[in-house]
Amino acid sequence: MVRLFCLILMFLPCATLAQDAQPPVDETPPQAQTSQSEPPMTIARLGEIVRALDPEAVVRGPAVEFTLEDIPVIVIADARADRMRAMVPIASAEGLAQADLLRLMQANFDAALDARYAVANGRLWGVFIHPLSPLQKDHFLSGLVQTITVARTYGTAYTSGGAVFGGGDSNTIYRELLEKLRKKGQAL
After folding, report:
1. What is the pLDDT of residues 22-45, one digit of tens each?
2. Tens of pLDDT along 122-150?
3. Regarding beta strands 123-131 and 63-68, do their DSSP bridges make them parallel or antiparallel, or are they unpaired?
4. Long-range Cβ contact pairs of 46-50 (< 8 A, separation 24 or more)
5. What pTM was computed for the model?
């Protein structure tokens, strides 16, 4: 009985969304849109992509700092751990109320998608964390867009903008930024 109840809870929101929602403009995930011959991601290749996005990017040890859409971004990669993290500072974590933290966790579950809200070193961050070597360029770019979007929508929609159902402008705004970043890094 408990198992049936859990299954109903799991699929009920999906059924409701499917009835009320219009599909996103492009249902193909960014990683499926890239070529299968794309080489494994390395720290050097990641750096080339970042420099194509912002030629003024600054390397500080294992991190590279740059700006996208007037938002500061930090990317840290570790080849030995085969991990990368893109981070956008949002606000001080000082004074975050329990209701704020609950809303952040809710967004991490259903609206932030590949990006996440996180707290570290006394700061609230938008983050995209992924294994380094299997990361494809378009997935990285999508992760950056989603991370910027969770920072922009903090306190309002709490979304990464990655999937938007129904009418409105959000999906178009998300797609335009993703296409702009793809064009900047086209040669990579």
Report:
1. 333 444 444 444 446 789 999 999
2. 999 999 999 999 999 999 999 999 999 99
3. unpaired
4. 46/75, 46/77, 46/84, 46/132, 46/135, 46/140, 48/188, 49/137, 49/140, 49/141, 49/185, 49/188, 50/75
5. 0.71
Check if the beta carbon of residue 106 is closer than 8 Å to that of residue 139: no
How do the residues of the chain divide into helix, strand and coil, expressed in percent and rounded to 5? 40, 20, 35
Q: How many CA atoms lie within 13 A of 51 on its CB side?
A: 10
Do the beta carbons of residue 73 and residue 85 sit within 8 Å?
Answer: no
Q: Which residues of 89-116 are buried (b: 16+ CB within 10 A; e: fewer)?
A: ebeebeeeeeebeebbeebbeebbbbbb
- Asked whether the beta carbons of 117 and 124 are under 8 A apart, the reply is yes
Look up residue 153 and give its amino acid. Answer: T
pLDDT of residue 98: 95
The answer for 121, left when phi > 0, alpha when psi is -120 to 50, beta otherwise, is left
Phi, psi angles (nearest 5°) of residue 95:
85, 5
Quote the pLDDT of residue 170: 54
Distance CA 90, CA 152 (A): 8
Q: Give bridge partners of residue 72 from the DSSP assignment.
A: 67
